[in-house]
Amino acid sequence: MTSATDRPRRSALYLPASNAKAIAKARTLPCDVVILDLEDAVAPEAKAEARAAAVAAVEEGGFGHREVAIRTNSLDTEWGAADLAAAAASRVDAVLVPKVNGPGDLDRYEDALASAPPSLQLWAMIETCASVLALEPIAARASSTRLSLWIMGTNDLAKEMRAQLTPERTPFLPFLSQAVAAARMHGLAILDGVCNEFRDLDVFASEARQGLLFGFDGKSLIHPAQIEPCNATFSPSEADLAWACAVIAAFAAPENEGKGAIQVNGKMTELLHLDQARRLVAMAEQIAASGR
Ligand code: COA
Ligand code: MG
């Protein structure tokens, strides 16, 4: 497993960096990722204060196993350059950049982070019409930049497309699927968009299951109540692990030595399934080690 792209990212909680109470609470919540937002969740008059609060929160630490990202404003706004400079000088794990339109934008963010430690990752929102029509070239920047993860921004995409964001998400399904394929092609991790219905956990759970079905590593969240159901959905289940152990044991059996295709529990099973089984077990071990 590579640490940058293949670690548990089941649940990524956004919070406005201007909200000190939410930052304090995030240190106690069972999410895998905390995103300190300087962009959509922060009003223009609070941008500078939020930037300082995000940097101070990273400096103070206390986030334990959780990865911490700062979501900056776009470099096309009056706040972007200062946000990027502040994040680059902090010890944050990742900088999440919004409203990327094409591969050239990744190069601009890469340049803006030139002075940051090599371990700092660049994460990008996929949320504009231009980006969903340039998924593969944007993902290909993984080889020449710090880019390691995408997050779908379904609210902004709905706004730009003038499409309706219903629980079924019908207008967005082709893009969700294409984004997962482009991300996988270039070794990026990828997280699903947020569910605005934070008081209705049934709606949330069904949307999370849809994300799992599509191949997302996890989901971005807006409220603490969404974390537990999200972790439950994106963790390997007991049945998954029983299957994985059976596959690993079957390929290790002497009678199957050197075989590429065997039967396990009445199903055709190939070496590619052995890879999937090993990944599931490794992910479950990482989740257990993190205690969440
Ligand atoms: N992160 C951490 N804590 C959060 C939180 C979040 N995203 N959202 C709410 N909380 C905390 C509240 O501070 C409150 O804490 P308390 O019990 O100690 O007082 C508790 O959880 C319950 O909050 P609740 O009253 O249910 O919600 P709210 O009405 O205060 O806030 C939102 C609702 C939607 C405004 C809020 O959840 C939020 O700001 N979410 C994130 C928005 C965001 O970042 N958007 C950008 C990306 S899409
Ligand atoms: Mg947005």
Helix content: 40-55%
Strand runs, count? 10
Query: What is the residue-mean pLDDT, rounded to a whole number?
Result: 96
Strand order of the largest sheet: 1-2-3-4-5-6-7-8
What's the order of the H and E elements? EHEHEHEHEHHEHHEHEHHEEH
CATH architecture of the largest domain: Alpha-Beta Barrel
Rg, Cα atoms, Å: 20 Å
The chain-level structural class is alpha/beta
Assign the CATH superfamily of the largest domain: Phosphoenolpyruvate-binding domains
In terms of DSSP E residues, the strand content is: 15-25%
CATH level-1 class of the largest domain: Alpha Beta
Q: CATH topology of the largest domain, which one?
A: TIM Barrel
Shape verdict: globular
Low-confidence stretches: none
Which small-molecule ligands are present, each listed once?
A: coenzyme A, magnesium ion
How far is the first residue's CA from the last residue's CA? 19 Å
Question: How many distinct folded domains?
Answer: 2
Major β-sheet profile: 8 strands, parallel, barrel
Specify the number of helices: 12
GO molecular function, one term: lyase activity
Organism: Novosphingobium panipatense
Cofactor: Mg(2+)
Domain HpcH/HpaI aldolase/citrate lyase: 10-224
In short:
By secondary structure, the protein is of the alpha/beta class. The chain is built from 12 helices and 10 strands. The chain starts with 10 loop residues before the first strand and ends with a helix.
